[in-house]
Specification:
The longest helix has 20 residues, at 67-86. α9 (216-231) crosses α11 (254-261) and α10 (239-250) packs antiparallel against α11 (254-261). The strands form 6 sheets. The protein has a 5-stranded mixed beta sheet with strand order 5-4-8-6-7, with helices on both faces. Strands 3-2-1-20 form a 4-stranded antiparallel beta sheet. A 4-stranded antiparallel beta sheet has the order 9-10-11-12, with helices on one face. By secondary structure, it is of the alpha+beta class. It is globular, with a radius of gyration of 23 Å. The protein starts with a strand and ends in a 12-residue tail after the last strand. The chain has helices at residues 36-49, 67-86, 88-91, 94-107, 137-147, 165-169, 184-191, 209-212, 216-231, 239-250, 254-261, 371-389, and strands at 3-13, 18-26, 29-34, 114-120, 126-132, 158-163, 175-177, 196-201, 270-278, 288-296, 299-304, 310-314, 318-325, 333-334, 337-338, 348-357, 360-367, 404-407, 413-416, 436-443, 461-462.
């Protein structure tokens, strides 16, 4: 999980007391607002649950903070939560998942009640569902899969996503996987109202297609997804191939359609928008150029927008990668023209260290506003590769909840157990979240999405799949 705390808000409760809430983003999207004492409570419960693990240092308590001290605390809290998210033990902890789920509900003041939502298939067909407002992603996934009569054994091959068709047509990042720490209803209604909740395959490696093609329902779901991805231009097919695919579609020859689609260039790829990089990274000579970025099974592809030259980078050859935020400087002029590398909209960099040949590592840098999205995709690909290395299949989206004493913003507590209600707002005193209101709009103390810090020392996300490389692959 990529955490950031780019800004904060000031609140005033009914007693006239003001307090600070820190806006927590996960994988580039707003998730919740939490007070310092709520994050401290999370830290203490993680510490109690994992006494033999060393947690990151939590920012010290201070009273009557100035603006500069609030900024310092924000930075330290961000560093803390990022380190938690990078540790697989803590990141997959039921305590963290339960805390994040509860904090999202409290932030948006959503009580438990039955709601009507729609889950779309990739052809736009809408599935009407009645669910609880605080049902987890895996619960809603089960309900949707049951609605379409998908076998329970095949549910692990699918996930729910927030999907933006407008961005998809422009080949911009358009999907966000709904994780177990969030409610699909809350995330769609309050965070991404312009998006649709869709059901689509959740794996990268096309080898898993074969498991879906032996079942009628899963074959239909895969077939519908491939038709849409071809229409969106995510896969490349010449005119002759398109005519054959159209013939298969007209005759409802779904298996034949899938088998031919699997041979297409960029099959299974996900668009990641445009970036600016050095021309040498796509074999185009010198200078900076614009490229289109996409990710597929085991690789990241850069395509020059000018020459259409294409360069594929194997994920297993990436030793590590990192994200940095570039602070705005004076724009440099080159012969009266702005340099591409100085564009203010490209103020994020994703860099990965790549093994060109044996013992020859080089850094490849992409300047792109979609750096976090690319990083999330890379991490997902690596996790799948490691599961395959360990003889495991696709990952189930389920993560066990844990008992947690959730500290609300008003200081009251609510005990949550795996079998209890997930309603963090229920109390004899009514809606505790409603007792606080925003004092003024978001107070930005730094640029949005402050620099994403990674592991101490190397400042990179280490790629565990890199170790699996053999000399024969070089």
């Amino acid at each position: 999980m990529h955490f950031s705390i780019p800004d904060l808000q000031q609140f005033r409760d009914d007693n006239g007391i003001t307090y600070t809430g820190y806006n927590v983003y996960i994988d580039g999207f707003f998730h919740c607002t939490a007070r310092y004492k709520q994050l401290l409570s999370l830290h203490e419960q993680l510490q109690a649950q994992y006494p033999h693990f060393k947690l990151p240092q939590f920012p010290p308590k201070k009273l009557f903070l100035t603006n500069s001290q609030l900024e310092e605390r924000r930075t330290l809290l961000e560093k803390y939560i990022q380190l938690i998210g990078q540790n697989p033990v803590f990141a997959n902890s039921g305590i963290l998942i339960t805390f994040l789920f509860s904090a999202q509900q409290e932030t948006h003041s959503v009580r438990v009640h039955v709601v009507d939502i729609e889950v779309s298939l990739m052809n736009g067909y809408r599935i009407p569902l009645s669910v609880s407002s605080t049902d987890s992603s895996s619960t809603v996934l089960d309900i949707a899969c049951n609605y379409v009569n998908l076998s329970k054994d095949l549910t692990k091959y699918f996930s729910l996503y927030l999907f933006n068709w407008s961005c998809a047509k422009d080949r911009q990042p358009c999907i966000k996987k709904l994780e177990e720490y969030e409610s699909p209803y809350i995330s769609q209604k309050y965070v991404r109202p312009e998006d649709k909740i869709v059901l689509r395959k959740s794996y990268w490696d096309p080898c898993y297609d074969l498991d879906l093609m032996i079942d009628r329902v899963s074959l239909d779901l895969l077939y519908l997804q491939l038709i849409e991805e071809l229409d969106l231009g995510w896969m490349v097919a010449d005119q002759g191939t398109r005519e054959i695919l159209s013939d298969h579609e007209a005759k409802k020859q779904k298996r034949e359609y899938i088998e031919m689609a699997r041979t297409l260039r960029h099959y299974g790829s996900v668009p990641a928008g445009e970036a600016i990089t050095e021309a040498i990274n796509v074999g185009d000579g010198n200078g900076s150029i614009r490229v289109r970025v996409s990710l597929a099974s085991k690789e990241l592809t850069l395509t020059s927008l000018d020459t259409r030259h294409e360069q594929r980078y194997k994920v297993t050859r990436m030793r590590c990668w990192r994200i940095t935020t570039l602070h705005t400087m004076e724009r440099q002029q080159t012969n009266g023209h702005d340099s591409l590398m100085d564009e203010p909209s490209k103020n994020f960099e994703l860099s990965f260290e790549y093994l060109i040949s044996k013992d020859n590592l080089v850094w490849v840098t992409l300047r792109t506003e979609h750096a976090i999205f690319i990083s999330v995709c890379l991490q997902s690909i690596v996790e799948e590769l490691m599961r395959q290395k360990n003889g495991e299949g696709p990952k189930s989206p389920r993560c066990k909840r844990a008992s947690l004493t959730y500290l609300r913003r008003d200081g009251s507590t609510h005990l949550i157990t795996p079998s209890s209600s997930s309603d963090t707002l229920s109390s004899a005193n009514g809606d505790s979240s409603g007792s606080s209101r925003e004092l003024f709009s978001v107070q930005k103390l730094t640029e949005k999405f402050a620099s994403v810090a990674f592991k101490t020392g190397r400042d990179c996300v280490e790629n565990n799949a890199f170790e699996a490389i053999g000399d024969e692959e070089l």
